[in-house]
Amino acid sequence: MKMMKKTLLAASVAAVASSAALANVSDDKVKIGVLADMGGTYADICGQGCVTATQMAVEDFGGTVLGKPIEVISADDQLKPDVGSAIVRKWIENEQVDAVGGMVSSAVTGAATKVTTDAKKIALISTSASNAFTTKACSPYNVHWTYNVVALANGTVKPMVEAGKKKWFFITADYAFGHALEGVATKVINENGGEVVGAARAPLGTTDFSSYILQAQSSGADVVALANAGNDTVNSLKAASEFGLTQMMDVAGLLVFTPNAQAMDPNVAGGMRTTTGFYWDLDDQTREWSKRFMERHGSIPAMGHAGAYSMTMHYLKAVEAAGTDDSDAVIKKMKEMKPDDFFSRNATLRADGRMVHDMYYVEIKKPDERRDDNDIFKVVSTIPGDQAYAPMLPECNFK
Amino acid sequence: MKINKVYVVLLLLALVAPFFLYPVFLAKLLCFALFACAFNLMLGYVGLLSFGHAAFLGTGGYITGWLMMNSGMTPELAILLGTVSAGALGAIYGKLSVKREGIYFAMVTLALSQLVFFIYLQAPFTGGEDGMQGVPRGNLFGMIDLSDNINMYYFVLAVFLFGFWLIHRTIHSPFGQVLKAIRENEPRAVSLGYNVNDYKWVAFTISAALAGLAGSTKTLVFQLASLTDVHWHMSGEVVLMTLVGGVGTILGPVVGAGVIVTMQNYLSGGELGNYLHIIMGFIFVVCVLAFRSGIVGEFQKVWKRNFG
Amino acid sequence: MATFLGINLFGLFGQLLVGLINGSFYALLSLGLAIIFGLLKIINFAQGAMYMLGAFAAYLALQYMGINYWASLVLVPLAVGLVGVLMERFLIRPIANEDHLYSLLLTFGFALMLQGVFTHMYGSSGLSYSIPEALRGGTKLPFMYLPDYRAWIICASVVVCGLTWWMIEKTKLGAYLRAGTENPQLMQAFGINVPLIVTLTFGFGVGLAGLAGVLAAPIYSVSPDMGSNLLIVVFAIVVIGGMGSIGGAILTGLGMGVIEGLTKYFYPEASNTVIFLVMVIVLLLKPAGLFGKEA
């Protein structure tokens, strides 16, 4: 009896010791910081929703990894690169954050990923659009999940040019994201025999787009492309309809998130086609998750929300598989393991950090096609990942 | 004598602080303290309220950042050039604005700084809304690695002490005495034969250059220069810091910057982040209505009454 | 596409129109500032926040009380004016004898608070207020499509500015007001309640900003920082026009809007800066402003 007790004790001591040795988790917890826009133009597409989605992933994972608790903290970047980068610096240097998630404005993400890369911490990018994070600003620690500007241009612009819409005018959000989207889309237009007749750059958060709409109107273009996002898209479409632009030319929203599509006048937006990385009403799997999200958040998930959940889950699985929260080991595992859930279909996480998965070419439903307020998109076609995304650059191959 | 003791205690605190508090936070605090001191040189000692000092903070930051990224200069040289650029901009502004007084001066400086804001917004070298990202901290004099936060902090402390000393010297020089004479009674200063506008102009240029020094240093600390530093909100913040600490007192701006930066640090990012502007506005209103001498000013009054 | 001497008339007229609309707001706001400055010698930094308050009031009135646009157009300026009256009475009057810089700082702090409160409650992304039914269409002019609501803004602003000018320059009430500005002690001696006039004038100036806010609500989205960025431009306009005259404030406001519109057409990159550049030129040539008296 005594003997048995001793053995048990020894065994349990050994177990604890070995799990401690195995579970090489820094400061005894895994901490994820979610950087998002809590009250600005992008609040609906990755604000509190990104935090909720991240928390859901942690809860579904069980709340602990390798026997250590997982903690989620969040902060408002106010869409300002200096604020975002200072928060991430503080998180990493002073608050032992292991990975940074969320991330919406490409300008903020650009600044924040500089800090994460310097500190060798993993950046999980859900809602930013610029392709820079896996190309010219690529880093071994960047993971770009949901979509990017290349997928948008290939998905939305290419079919329109091929269908004979040759002359394009851009209304572009005047910062990293808009510039990247305009640049990539211009390349697609030129390659397919179209031309860009002009562009107007509007600051992020512009509320009156009338002067840009008038510029577009006098440009003689076939298509006016809205290379902006969030409320900017809503407001620019509103001005376009007020000044009669929608009757004269095609208006193409290059990046339309579901909450923004809900805010648009269905009579104006109906029939517009765009590209998305996720839609809540695809099949039972997406509906199951979206229903849970909706109960917590109050509205249907935008693609960035679903991406935030999916990438957090993948990160935690990789931490478990690696047996440590050490960034180099975790990122290696993340790239070895195939992401596969309701969001990631036919997916791989490439060595450059780009998560390549199926994208969807969708049409915004007209008023008479809608069952209810949440019935926004109908899927026109599924775009296989390798057709949506650009091939990996050799200098970004972090194997 | 008493004052000297205060300085010695403060200096000792500043020297040991980074071992207890997050050095980047402390460095930020010192940058803003220097900025507020530079601003106070105008408001406190010349009596002119500049509502456009963010333009100088931002100019210093952008020039230094650009030099660090593109020229391979050592940090001290880049900071020096950033400071000189801000001073040059200040000289131009000063020429346009010192002829005006009071509210007009505030409005002219505000509008001029907005002009600078839009230029930086559109100039390619600043990166517009993206900001200038990934500025290297470099090696001080080519030797000391500033990417280490503790090294960075002591360097910022040295810069701050230099700026503080310079302002102290300026105020207590014959030049500073003339400035005070202008503040107290401008017509009298004119009748004594002083070219009042020239004095104001020189003071404005010094103030701008030191604000630029603060901005240059801040860019190195955060490795980033952005439009926030040129936005007129920043101009308002420095007014608030000075007001809270005590206008026209030498330590007031330092105390005010400490209070405001600490407050921002604890409020932003947390649950109360939304309240930041409400609280700042409230402090503004309360200071103006009931607390015009600021913390240091009130403290001096109490001290004088009881011990003076 | 209609062109004349290589100029695309469609584009040019459109930008001129947008400029004129912006100018209408500039005129209303700088007029309010000029009236307040005339009597109190202070600059109301909260004028932009009052404009924002006007837009929010219209939005909330519709949302929660079912008060439509036309009723808001009358009620909201009164309500915002009342806020102004309270603000003058309880915040500004206690420091009336201090340096006027303090009242500038006070109104600045008040503006920050208001903006903070609305940001806290409604976020900074903006709410939408739809254009009233009667003004929803548009008119096809030879060179452009003019939405009715935009035309209405220009008319409303010009009428309100004109009436205000007439009231101050041509009526007895206006005469009291101007006399109160010149010599308050003498007016007090004549038995006129100068503090009351000051309070009401402040309320009126602020009410104009509230009216501008209601006009703006349907075309700009209703957001907490809608006023603060506009205000800086209005400050520059006030510096350009000078603080001397009511008419000057109106003309400079409209004129600068048009200049901005022209710049948007000919050289869009400079459209944000053109007003500030004009200000620098005016400061160099005529430091007191175009219509200002030499201080």
Automatic annotation (TrEMBL), chain A:
Cited CDD domains: PBP1_SBP-like (cd06327)
Keyword Signal: yes
Domain Leucine-binding protein: 29-365
Keyword hit for Phosphoprotein: no
Signal peptide range in chain numbering: 1-23
Pfam family name, one: Peripla_BP_6
Keywords of this entry: Signal
Source superkingdom: Bacteria
UniProt record similarity statement: Belongs to the leucine-binding protein family.
Protein name (Swiss-Prot/TrEMBL): Amino acid/amide ABC transporter substrate-binding protein, HAAT family
Species for this entry: Marinobacterium stanieri
Lineage: Bacteria, Pseudomonadati, Pseudomonadota, Gammaproteobacteria, Oceanospirillales
Automatic annotation (TrEMBL), chain B:
Keywords from the named record: Cell membrane, Membrane, Transmembrane, Transmembrane helix
Cellular component GO terms held in the UniProt record: plasma membrane
Gene Ontology molecular function: branched-chain amino acid transmembrane transporter activity
Predominant location: membrane
InterPro entries per the UniProt record, alphabetical: ABC_transp_permease (IPR001851), LivM-like (IPR043428)
Protein localization: Cell inner membrane
Chain segments annotated as transmembrane: 6-25, 32-57, 77-96, 103-123, 150-167, 238-263, 275-295
Topology class, membrane: Multi-pass membrane protein
Pfam families found in the cross-reference section: BPD_transp_2 (PF02653)
PANTHER family: ABC TRANSPORTER ATP-BINDING PROTEIN, HIGH-AFFINITY BRANCHED-CHAIN AMINO ACID TRANSPORT SYSTEM PERMEASE
Name of the protein this chain belongs to: Amino acid/amide ABC transporter membrane protein 2, HAAT family
Species the sequence originates in: Marinobacterium stanieri
Taxonomic placement: Bacteria, Pseudomonadati, Pseudomonadota, Gammaproteobacteria, Oceanospirillales
TrEMBL record, chain C:
A GO CC term assigned to this protein in UniProt: plasma membrane
Protein location: Cell inner membrane
Organism per entry: Marinobacterium stanieri
A Pfam family this chain is assigned to: BPD_transp_2
Claim: Lipid biosynthesis is one of the keywords in the record: no
Annotated membrane topology: Multi-pass membrane protein
Chief location category: membrane
Protein name, as recorded: Amino acid/amide ABC transporter membrane protein 1, HAAT family
Top-rank taxon: Bacteria
InterPro entries, alphabetized: ABC_transp_permease (IPR001851), BCAA_transport_permease (IPR052157)
UniProt GO molecular function: transmembrane transporter activity
